[in-house]
Design goal:
Distance between the termini: 38 Å
Strand content: 5-15%
Structural class: alpha/beta
Radius of gyration: 17 Å
Largest sheet: 6 strands, parallel
Helix content: 40-55%
Order of helices and strands: EHEHEHEHEHEHHHHHH
């Protein structure tokens, strides 16, 4: 199978080393470079064209939010996975809005971090349960977008089940186990929801559902 080319952007060399060690244990993932701030990260993306960028948020010279926005704008096929210690809404939401496909905390297990890389590479999104809940709560507290609920095409019962589990921060594999179906079936359901609601990824599914009052903060 083709390898997943990963770039790690973090100002802490020990963190870069640890993340590189974690993801390199997967035979299908190759770390092709490292950078210590957002500006260096953008230069490295231009030079190396990785598939996935593991991006810290708080860094000198240029932070991860600015770098993510630049990467998403110039190289939309490159996926950004935020991996950081910061879990406040003032960093999570701007990072996701900038174009990050996932947001994991550095205290996540090595297996979860590897799974996150795989998920964003596969076109999905990866959110820890705490981050998913925060996203939903913020959207609900900010008030529903005008007409959002009326504009959403209704979901089937099974699609609603998938949505509810997505709102708990579950990965595709976890949703598949919970519903006793294949991971491919889960991806198909998510794809139909994206098509119905005209959104690009799992994060935007949650935003749309939260605006419409279809998912609750837990």
């Amino acid at each position: 199978m083709p390898e997943i080319r990963v770039l790690i952007v973090d100002d802490d060399p020990l963190v870069r080393s640890a993340l590189s060690h974690f993801v390199s244990r997967d035979p299908e993932i190759k770390v092709v470079g490292e950078a210590e701030n957002g500006a260096e990260g953008i230069e490295a993306v231009d030079r190396l064209r990785p598939d996935v960028v593991m991006m810290d948020v708080q860094m000198p010279e240029m932070n991860g939010i600015e770098a993510t926005a630049a990467i998403a704008g110039r190289w939309p096929d490159v996926r950004v996975l935020a991996v950081t210690t910061l879990d406040g809404s003032d960093t999570v939401l701007p990072m996701l809005n900038a174009g990050a496909s996932g947001y994991l905390l550095k205290d996540s297990s090595a297996a979860d971090i590897v799974a996150g890389v795989r998920e964003v590479h596969g076109g999905a999104s990866s959110l820890s349960p705490r981050i998913a809940s925060m996203l939903i709560k913020h959207v609900r507290d900010s008030g529903p977008a005008e007409g959002a609920g009326r504009e959403l095409e209704p979901l089937t019962d099974r699609e609603r089940e998938v949505l509810d589990l997505l709102a708990q921060g579950m990965s595709n594999a976890e949703i598949a186990r919970a519903l006793i179906v294949s991971e491919g079936t889960v991806k198909a359901h998510l794809g139909r929801i994206m098509s119905k609601w005209q959104v690009r990824d799992r994060v935007q599914i949650l935003v749309a559902a939260a605006h419409a009052g279809l998912v609750e903060f837990r």
